[in-house]
Each structure stands twice: as structure tokens, then as C-alpha cells.
Amino acid sequence: MSVPKWYQKTISITAPSRGCHLITNEVTNAVRSELSGIKIGMANLFIQHTSASLTINENADPDVRVDLETALNKIVPETWHKDGSFTHTMEGPDDMTGHVKSSLMGPSLNIPISNGRLALGTWQGIYLNEHRNQGGWGGGHTRNIVITLQGTS
């Protein structure tokens, strides 16, 4: 029986804009050599931010990303900042809505590893969902993601 191995790496990804962005290649490229040594295992991805989230969804049609952003804006509209629904407004009109969307979608993913690859389905991809027009205090959209791999060879 082989001893489980653990790997951890933090990557930074800059979302070009608010919305849902496919980042599967960035994630797999960052841990390609570590993944190759794992026959059976688990990958955990954790985003270190409260106004962005991670999810898995369709990777083929870019319209899915646009529609997902549209749906999120209907579920948690920015007008809630203007109508007094929120008291936390110090970082702008998309701040608290970003926090709510992040909580709904979640900060982490668990993906099985099988024979040196993330065991995503044929049409599945990893999304970075940026919920802010500006990534906190008026800065950019750079988000840190901690990737933890565990498995046996």
C-alpha cells in the first residue's frame, strides 16, 4: 500500500471583469506535475476572498457563463444597496451583493483525482466567479486560490 501524498500551492488569477470565468487550464497547469503522480485522490480548491466564488459548470458554450452571471444578478440585484436592504455598503454598490453571491456559490470545490487527472466530466469546467466590478477597495480582480492535492500513486 502506498503512503498518501499531500501537495499545496497557491495561485493568483486575475479575472478580466466581473462575471463567470473558465479557469480549468490555469488550475491544471499549476499542478500538472503533482497531479501526474496521483492515481487516486482528491483536489480541494479554496478561494481566499469573500466577493468571488468557485463552481463547476459547462465548459463548452460561453453563453452559459453569461447566463449564469445574469441569473446571479436577478437573484441578488445591486438595487438592494440603493433601497436600504443592506447596511454594509462601505466598499461600494456591488460589495454586499458580492458577499451574498459568494456565500450562495461557495468558496471551495472538491474534485476527485483519477490516474493523474482531475476527474471532471466531459463538459465540466472550473469557474472563477467574480462578483465585483472592482475587486475590493477599488483594486483589480486578482484572486488567490489555494489548491490542495492528496492521494496515492
TrEMBL record:
InterPro entries reported for this sequence: UPF0047_YjbQ-like, YjbQ-like_sf
Pfam families reported for this sequence: YjbQ
Classification via SUPFAM superfamilies: YjbQ-like
Gene3D superfamilies found in the cross-reference section: YjbQ-like
Family note: Belongs to the UPF0047 family.
Protein name in UniProt: Secondary thiamine-phosphate synthase enzyme
Species of the source: Chaetoceros tenuissimus
